[in-house]
Write a structure and sequence with these properties.
- This protein is α/β, with parallel strands linked by helices.
- The protein has a single domain, classed as HUPs (Rossmann fold, 3-Layer(aba) Sandwich).
- The protein contains 6 helices and 14 strands.
- A 7-stranded parallel sheet has the order 9-13-8-1-6-7-14, sandwiched between helices. The protein has a 3-stranded antiparallel sheet with strand order 10-11-12, with no helix packed on it. A two-stranded antiparallel ribbon has the order 2-5.
- The chain is globular and about 60 Å long.
- The N and C termini lie far apart (55 Å).
- The structure holds flavin-adenine dinucleotide (FAD).
- The site of flavin-adenine dinucleotide (FAD) has 30 residues, from α1, β6, α3, β8 and α4.
C-alpha cells in the first residue's frame, strides 16, 4: 500500500496583513507551521504504515523553506518527502495548486492507493484542494472523515458526522480522504526518526519536472479573482447569553438578527 499525505504550510491569520492595492496576503514575518488537520492526515498514514507496512510520502507545494515541514513529517515517521517549489507557482489558486500536486503524485507515486489531506487549510479554508486532486485523478473522494473504520479488499470504509448522527461511507481504492481533527491525535516527533529526518534526501521538484509551463500555474493558471478583502473587525457590544430550549434559542436569534438589520 502506498499513501501520499498532502501537507500545507499555513500562517496564523493574526500575523498577516492584506495589501490593499494587490489584494494579496502579505505573509512577511508570519510564522509558518503545518496545517493542524494535515498532521491528523500524517498520523493516519503512520497508523496504516504500522498496520499494513504501507510506504508513506508527504508532499507539499510551497516556498523552499517548507522543506523543514517535510522533515518534521519524516521525524514523525513518514518515509519520503517531496517538495514542489518554483517561482512560477507563486500566486496559485486552488485550481493551479491542485494541478501541480496532481502532476507530482502522477509522476512520483503513480500507483498510490490513498491520498490523505486535511479537511481544510486554516488560512484560506476553501476545502477545495483535496477534492480537486481526486477529481483530476478520477478517483473517489471521502471528505470530512472523522474515523477510518476499515481498509481491506480494495475498499475503504469511513465514518463522518451527518445531521442525524454518524454516517458510514465506503469507496473503492484508490481514494482521497480529507480528515478532521476527530480522526486521531497526532504523535510527536520521534528522537530516532529525527536523526534520520535530518539527513534524508527530499525530492525537490520544479514545474519543468512535471511537464508544466508557467502558463499552467501561478497567476496565469489561476482563474480565481479576489474581488474584495476585508479584515473582520471585532463587533463592539457586550455578550448576551440566551437560555431555553434549542428551538427557543433559535427563535430568539432569528428575532435579534431581524431587529439588527
Ligand atoms: C481570497 C483568497 C486570496 C488568496 N490570496 C493568496 C495570495 O495572495 N497568495 C497566496 O500564496 N495564496 C493566496 N491564497 C491561497 C491559495 O489560493 C490557497 O492557499 C491554495 O490554493 C490552497 O487552498 P486552501 O488553502 O484553501 O486549501 P484547502 O483546499 O482548504 O486545503 C485542503 C487540504 O489540501 C491540501 N493542500 C492545500 N494546499 C496545499 C499545498 N500547497 N501543498 C500541499 N497540500 C496542500 C492539504 O492537505 C489541506 O489540508 C488565497 C486564497 C483565497 C481564498
Amino acid at each position: 500500500m502506498k499513501i501520499v499525505v498532502c501537507i500545507k504550510e499555513v500562517f496564523n491569520s493574526d500575523d498577516v496583513k492584506i495589501d490593499k492595492k494587490t489584494k494579496n496576503i502579505d505573509r512577511r514575518g508570519a510564522e509558518l507551521f503545518i496545517n493542524p488537520y494535515d498532521l491528523n492526515a500524517v498520523e493516519l498514514a503512520l497508523e496504516l504504515k504500522e498496520k499494513f507496512g504501507a510506504e508513506t510520502y508527504a508532499i507539499t507545494m510551497g516556498i523552499p523553506s517548507a522543506e523543514s515541514s517535510l522533515r518534521e513529517c519524516l521525524a514523525m515517521g513518514i518515509d519520503k518527502g517531496i517538495l514542489l517549489t518554483d517561482r512560477a507557482l507563486a500566486g496559485s489558486d486552488t485550481i493551479a495548486t491542485s494541478l501541480a500536486l496532481t502532476e507530482a503524485i502522477r509522476k512520483y507515486v503513480p500507483d498510490c492507493d490513498l491520498i490523505l489531506c486535511g479537511k481544510h487549510a486554516i488560512d484560506a479554508e476553501t476545502s477545495i484542494v483535496g477534492p480537486a486532486i481526486a477529481e483530476r485523478l478520477g478517483i473517489a473522494q471521502l471528505t470530512y472523515v472523522d474515523e477510518l473504520v476499515s481498509i481491506e479488499a480494495g475498499k475503504v470504509i469511513v465514518k463522518k458526522a451527518a445531521e442525524n448522527g454518524d454516517l458510514e461511507v465506503e469507496a473503492k481504492l484508490p481514494a482521497m480522504l480529507s480528515v478532521t481533527g476527530e480522526v486521531n491525535k497526532p504523535r510527536y516527533m520521534d528522537l530516532k526518526n529525527i536523526r534520520v529526518a535530518v539527513s534524508s534526501e527530499i525530492e525537490v521538484v520544479d514545474i519543468a519536472k512535471l511537464n508544466l509551463s508557467a502558463e499552467d500555474v501561478g497567476v496565469p493558471g489561476s482563474p480565481t479573482v479576489v474581488g474584495e478583502m476585508h479584515m473582520v473587525e471585532r463587533a463592539a457590544g457586550a455578550c448576551r447569553m440566551l437560555s431555553g430550549s434549542t428551538v427557543d434559542i433559535a427563535r430568539k436569534i432569528a428575532e435579534l438578527a431581524k431587529a439588527a438589520k
